Amino acid sequence: MLHPLLKRIAHTVPYTRRLQDRLEGMRAHITALEAAKARLQAQVDGYERLHSSPPIEQACGGAETSHVIEEVEASHVIEHAWRDLDGVFVIGWAHAGRYPVRQMALLCGGERVETDELRPRPDLISHHPTLPPSGFAGFTLYLPCPAHLPLSLAIVTDAGINEMAVSLPSLVETHEPDATEATNSFIAAMHARDGTVLEIGARVFTGGPVGWRPHFEPGCRYIGSDIHPGPNIDVVADVHALTENVAPASMDGIFSVAVLEHLAAPWLAAVEINRALKLGGETLHATHQTWPVHDMPNDFFRMSDQALRFLFGPATGFEVIECGMAHPVSILPPRGMRKPGWVEMPLFPGYAQSYIWARKTAELDPTRPPWNIEGLRRVSEAYPRAG
Description:
By secondary structure, the protein is of the alpha/beta class. It has helices spanning 4-51, 53-59, 179-192, 213-216, 266-276, 305-311, 373-381, and strands spanning 75-83, 87-95, 101-108, 111-115, 136-144, 152-157, 160-165, 196-200, 221-226, 235-236, 251-257, 277-287, 318-329, 350-360.
């Protein structure tokens, strides 16, 4: 039989455990409150730092100046910007009337970044002829901050600080021509001659697009080829040695969509495409200038329109009918590399699509490579000179 004292202890243990659980919950709640208090204090500190005298004194060479001597009329323009979950980057200019701008600051919540390395903007003087050149400030700022908080810009002058809300410019929708029109023209040209058309990389995957065969049949003879057998494939062939499986000068048209980047030697493929085409035959290819890595391990290249002009140009027996790049995309630098030179990356677009439509105008000499040293040297010397 259990001793009465032991029975009391046994009944007390569950109650003690519940008290411990409640205590742990209260400790966690206190920790969360302390973290929230620290975040709020950081915001307050950031605001006080902005409106305290040291930045003004530093900007004015240590002169004792009140925070705001008078109302300063200031304006700014954000010319380029990008923002993601981790930060915001802006390029722009500002002026404050007759007062030279000494410093610019970008603020978000409790975070702040400032610069007194301001670029001259003589191009703006013609728009504001009464203002001294030193009254203009071209600035570049990157601030790590959350995406959901509002931004403000502070313009520091001898007369004080003018802080204003910042609205980032909207992305401008671009409408560069893509491969659609060239593709439709290529299909129409094949139908006009009741042509024999070969697609490179024609394998159809379950759940994917239905393929290009319906666009050509019944008016044309469509042949689907791929390195592997599968749905929609009539000829298994390696395009690097296409004429081992396809008769030379037998095709009216050869095309591919998102294939060239997966070829180990696309220059050899261009030569083989020339050999498989009839004289006057046409070729169409769409690939990527900028695109995530995919279909590894056979993801080898990204190609600009200039690369496609080189592959399917006079050296390989073609004349270009149409060539271009379309669908601009931006590359965001990783968080650890957001420094000068990297933060500007999103301002220079890549292109999700590059394409070329070309016509065969010459047969290639099978005994010699299509490119010679002199021709390659001319291409190399077109590289921009520094400065």
